[in-house]
Amino acid sequence: MAEIVALDLEESSTGLVATDLQDGVLTVTLSNPPAHALSMEMIATLHRTLDAARSDKAVRVLVLASSGKIFCAGHDLKEMAAHRADPDGGRAFLEDLFRRCSELMKAIVRLPKPVIARVDGIATAAGCQLVASCDLAIASEAARFCTPGVNLGGFCSTPMVALSRNVSRKHAMEMLLTGEMIDAQTARDFGLVNRVVPPEYLDQVTAKYAAAIASKSPAAIARGKRAFHEQADMRLSEAYDYASAVMVEGFMTRDSDEGIDAFVSKRKPEWKGE
């Protein structure tokens, strides 16, 4: 797991990512052009950023973005190829790389704050996995997606985990077996992204979603996100029992009292986060 370090999330840049915090929304921009590849260093940097955001009460929503024609091209193939010269042919490096990347994707899912992917370019392999791991994804009409491991003599097995949990099995297999690029509209039809908008409206629409979520009770959002993923792997009866218990606890909180009173009084709620 990436080392946890303190980061100033108000407005900072590590050289690989830039962060900007405005009104509870932390925008994390991949800044390693042109491919914004998930190198070992990029994975560690993103993991540290997530860890810092987890403990920062000022952060309510994360937006994951990048600039240029590529959102994220997946792993750094040059970095991978360089380790072919290792005594073991690069096996230890690959094992560590994919383990760390998997931990990053799990960290996004387990983060008690929603993560929105803002995609205005190509997302391939682990970059597509990154989009699929986010809670929401807003794409411009210029966005493209694919899992091209099969074209390289391998298979996008770890991207498959996130992909198969977001789209139907037939659609996931179509992407994994063909390695072909799909456009943004097809990605929406498959269920990989929530909305497709003209490029000039991407920031506006993403900001609208982020602001709407940031206005809710952070405690309720955290509880709900955790429950969503927990119940997804349960049998129906078990899921309902679990979700009912979570719902009871949710409506016993101070934020629930505040939300109900604000609704009845026709005023804006003031969340306490508890």
TrEMBL record:
SUPFAM superfamilies: ClpP/crotonase. The keyword Transit peptide applies. Coiled coil: none annotated. One of its GO terms (biological process) is fatty acid metabolic process. InterPro entries: ClpP/crotonase-like_dom_sf, Enoyl-CoA_hydra/iso, Enoyl-CoA_hydra_C, Mitochondrial_ECH-domain. One of its GO terms (molecular function) is hydro-lyase activity. It holds the Pfam family ECH_1. Keywords: Fatty acid metabolism, Lipid metabolism, Lyase, Transit peptide. May play a role in fatty acid biosynthesis and insulin sensitivity. NCBIfam families: PRK08139.1. Belongs to the enoyl-CoA hydratase/isomerase family. This is Enoyl-CoA hydratase domain-containing protein 3, mitochondrial.
